[in-house]
Amino acid sequence: MTVQRRRRDFVENEQQLAGRHTRGRIWLSIFQISTLIGVIILMVLLLTIINNSIGYSAVQDEVDPESLAVGGVPLEELPKETLVQILRENVSAGLFARFEHDQPVAERSAAEIYDLIQEYVISPEVIESWSLFDSLIRRDEILAIMQSQYPQAELQFISWLNWDFVRSQQSSHPEIAGVRTAIFGSLWTISITILFALPVGVAAAVYLQEYAQDTFINRIIQTNINNLAGVPSIIYGILGLAIFVRAFGYFTSGIYFGAADPSTANGRTILSAGLTLGVLVLPLIIINAQEAIKAVPNSLREASLALGGTRWETVWNHVLPNSLPGILTGSILAVSRALGETAPLVVIGASTFIQVDPQGPFSKFTTLPSQIYQWTVRPQGVFHNVAAAASLVLLVLLLALNASAILLRNRYSRRL
Amino acid sequence: MSIRLSIRHIEPPNKVMKEQRIERGTPSVGDLRKRPRPREAAIQSFLFLCGFLSIFITFGIIYELGKESLLFFGQTQWSSTNKPLAAAISADQTVIEVGTQGTPLQEGTLYRIEEEIVFLESTDGEMITVQRGVEGSQAALHSEGLTLQAALQPDLVEFFTGTEWAPHNGKFGILPLLTATLIVSGIAIVVAVPLGMATAVYLSEYATQRARNTLKPILEILAGVPTVVYGFFALTFMTPLLRSILGAEVVGIYNMASAGIVIGILILPFVSTVSEDALNAVPRSLREAAYGLGATRLETAVRVIVPAAFSGIAAAIILAASRAIGETMIVAIASGAGPNFTFNPFEAAETMTGHIVRISGGDLSFNSVDYNSIFAVGLMLFIMTLVLNIFSQRIVRRFREIYE
Amino acid sequence: MQNSSKISPAESEYAIETQDLSVYYNEFQAVRDVNLKIESRRITAIIGPSGCGKTTVLRSFNRMNELVPYAHAKGKVLFGGRNIYEPDVDPVEVRSRIGMVFQKPNPFPKSIYENVAWGARINGFKGDMREHVKQSLKSAALWDEVHDKLDESGLSLSGGQQQRLCIARAIAVKPDIVLMDEPCSSLDPIATLRIEELMRDLAKEYTIIIVTHNMQQAARVSDFTAFFSLSEDGKRAGVLMEYGETKTMFTRPQRKITEEYITGRFG
């Protein structure tokens, strides 16, 4: 019978079937594990950073802060004039003159004077630090090392990430270094980036989606933008160096605006940094805005045009308002990207060491990721701790940004 | 694109609503002519300029890199040999005494003292015989202690085939930087592609909606971590890990493998997301056809869906490679700070990007040889990534036609 | 020196007159040599099987087919005696005089009030906007249903209400002609009936041209009917087969092909 013969031909298949299913199960496990690896890596990454930002440290002060107290009043509570007095007495004349030159003492706040005393007079030094893991597991061993090698020092359990860290200015002593200057630098830079890139990017996207016909030049513009999105960030750094720092240095340094001293100013300012990053994120904003504009249904445009609206009236009154949520989400993502960029800023000359907060677009600058980079590449192990702490600050900032982007997206998609 | 500017003589626009239209029986056409809408035209011009700006940017990049690279290859660079004149010389002296320190001088080459170029005929280590004032320069007096400068002429052949990169010493071979870049990127791809593809297949073909909702945000977070933090991670975790697994003698404190693996982690979410998009774009009907024939889920995924999404996946891999090549901070921190021509991934070596960062981050005078060389390296980097990007776009276009 | 473009009303008794109108998509001739005279303040229906260019013809009356980059028209479309395809005619102007209601209701995602007011505002309405919106909504037979919720979104209305809102929006611009592209095809029968009643009222003030695939609707509603079909030479161009008073066309059609379509033998 034909049926039996067919079954006979297919009999081997039943045995094969079990094997196929087993193979399927094995590979499924492999796929699942691969996916899990991504999750594991993220956790390991976060743990590494946290591991480096908390732990035991052997701390030794050069000058005991208690010896500086005046009339029994501890150092932190002394008024500014007394602090200035203490500073003048305890540092060399040349060093004090340098403070005056960077920013006159009269203009500095009491907290800033206190910071200077901390850094240059008391000068706490971390001789060695241990990671969180080590601090918890090898505690006895560490105590023994303290006894034998660092009898003068004090063993402190430091969380390198604390409010002082965020508030303080940069310092060559990692113990008292903070990221305040860097945070301000980042904020100033990003503001300029967005101020430049968002309007120009959205305008370009509007042009490409609403006005451009399928001509040669418009196709070139589109391909060009897609390619620019893939250019390594360091190339933008070189471009920024050549154009903003050198060619337009007269403007970006502030000399043209009378805001800077021609003898010391150069183009390595926040303005240059912001514009460079602006050029970097411009293709991303354009592509993203294009997607948002494409998503607006055509029936809306037709309704507006049929009423006798012009192209621009249609865009301004209907297309843009309805693509706004998408555009905003995209620009927040672009800001996140720009916040984390380091390489182009190194090329255009992020300052390696500044202690004064940026005053405006013509100030010298450093940013949070630049700071992390500089601390990471220092040989002394202690700098790794502050680098880790700064990384946590940066990650928290980015998390907040992205969370707001997701919130925005959800809120607006519900409304429509 | 057309910018319509009406320049004809037109009556002033009649913008008041014509409520009197209602009474007539037939349309009073009134003025249908185009009125000049200067605001429209101005806005359209502005928008076009914004779009065109991108072309300026590309030209700017090509111009800057090209110009400086041309100078780099075209101009003779002068670099100090640290060999001083032992005594002051007059303008017509042809036999000169020089100090013994500094790099040895080569006969038959040009040297420069201050602004004057001389041709070295012979040397015995302490005394040199030269032709004065060659190549259009003027012979002049020179004081004691001035150092001779050697002529460095980078040429294209040496650039692409030389295995030593030390511009201040006249060595212009880009191969050390190039091999380092390729090795690091290669390791990154080897890490990212299998893991990324496996993740993509899992998310697209197997995972439940709930699993996807938890896993995708995690991948997004991974993708959002700044590269400098990854660099820190490479230095403080990956390198010690490798050293403890493979031994501290095998793996250096700075090494390419560490950087490569972490770059792989960096681009993993990218490979996964783009591949997953490509897999999702394959129409349902194809899956149903396969299942209908009695194929298992694995067979469907691997033998039907993945090949169908091939163009998208190939594009994703090529783009990921492009990003790996352009990555800077991770290699700058973890890979090493000095060119080194080697194929051993556990040694330290400097990539093209790392080199650019190191040179431009240091204190360098404009127009020194090292400084100008970063433009040539940058141009090479730009061309490599551009070719890869264009290639990936071509692949998508070509293979998509065949499939559909 | 330009000729004056003002035409006195007596010269043209037709709202729209086409002369040898052809519309091409790239090389393909979608509509061929249409000669049509649309009477003012009447309802004219355009009927025919699908794919014969009815919508193309309609959209050529207000130059909406230009939104597709590869479409172009030959011949003339006279609006009040003036060819709207002349090079110095502004399509924006044309569209403010010849309005359109689409197949699928497309109100703006704005309030009901804004939906009606926006078109009037950009066309320069200077009077009392609140009153104008009220009048337009009344003319569209929608006022009673929405007068107390003018601030709500236009998208919160039912399908039939949304379409009437679109009609209100179109007439708020005070056009001469209102084009309707299968306005009831996405609505239920009751909503359809309401709109048909509305059309009768609107025809007292406006010229209505409606494309419909529903013959019964054409028979119910229109004064004149234009029947389009595919050309008989196999080139698939839309051609005007017959045009006349609806009563006559549906009882004593002049051409065999018209009769075959009306009796349902094809289409």
Describe this structure in words.
The complex is a heterotrimer of chains A (416), B (404) and C (267). Chain A is mostly helical. Chain A has 2 domains: 54-159, no CATH class; 180-412, MetI-like fold (Orthogonal Bundle). Helices cover 68% and strands 4% of the residues of chain A. Chain A is built from 17 helices and 3 strands. Chain A has helices at residues 2-53, 80-90, 93-102, 110-122, 132-137, 139-149, 163-167, 180-211, 216-228, 233-247, 249-252, 270-294, 298-306, 311-339, 343-348, 368-376, 382-415; strands at residues 54-60, 125-129, 154-159. A 3-stranded antiparallel sheet of chain A has the order 2-1-3. Chain A is flat. By secondary structure, chain B is α+β, with helices and mostly antiparallel strands. Chain B has 2 domains: 78-152, Elongation Factor Tu (Ef-tu), domain 3, CATH 2.40.30; 175-399, MetI-like (MetI-like fold, Orthogonal Bundle), CATH 1.10.3720. Chain B has 12 helices and 8 strands. Chain B is extended, with a radius of gyration of 32 Å. With 267 residues, chain C is an alpha/beta fold. Chain C contains 10 helices and 10 strands. In chain C, the strands form 2 sheets. Chain C has a 6-stranded mixed sheet, sandwiched between helices. Chain C has a 4-stranded antiparallel sheet with strand order 2-1-4-5, covered by helices on one side. Residues 1-11 of chain C have low confidence and may be disordered. Classes of the chains: A mainly alpha (416), B alpha+beta (404), C alpha/beta (267). At the A-C interface, α13 and α14 of A face α2, α3 and α6 of C.
Present the secondary structure layout.
The complex is a heterotrimer of chains A (416), B (404) and C (267).
Chain A: H1 2-53, E1 54-60, H2 80-90, H3 93-102, H4 110-122, E2 125-129, H5 132-137, H6 139-149, E3 154-159, H7 163-167, H8 180-211, H9 216-228, H10 233-247, H11 249-252, H12 270-294, H13 298-306, H14 311-339, H15 343-348, H16 368-376, H17 382-415
Antiparallel strand pairs in A: 1-2, 1-3
Helix pairs in contact in A: 1-17, 2-4, 8-12, 8-14, 8-16, 10-12, 12-14, 13-14, 14-17, 16-17
Chain B: H1 38-74, E1 77-84, E2 95-97, E3 110-113, E4 116-123, E5 127-131, E6 147-152, H2 156-161, E7 165-166, E8 171-172, H3 175-206, H4 209-224, H5 227-246, H6 256-281, H7 284-292, H8 297-308, H9 310-326, H10 329-334, H11 352-361, H12 369-403
Antiparallel strand pairs in B: 1-6, 2-5, 3-4, 3-6, 4-5, 7-8
Helix pairs in contact in B: 1-12, 3-6, 3-9, 4-6, 5-6, 6-9, 7-8, 9-12, 11-12
Chain C: E1 14-25, E2 28-39, E3 43-47, H1 54-61, E4 71-79, E5 82-83, H2 91-97, E6 98-101, H3 112-122, H4 129-139, H5 143-146, H6 159-171, E7 177-181, H7 189-202, E8 207-211, H8 215-221, E9 224-230, E10 238-245, H9 246-251, H10 256-262
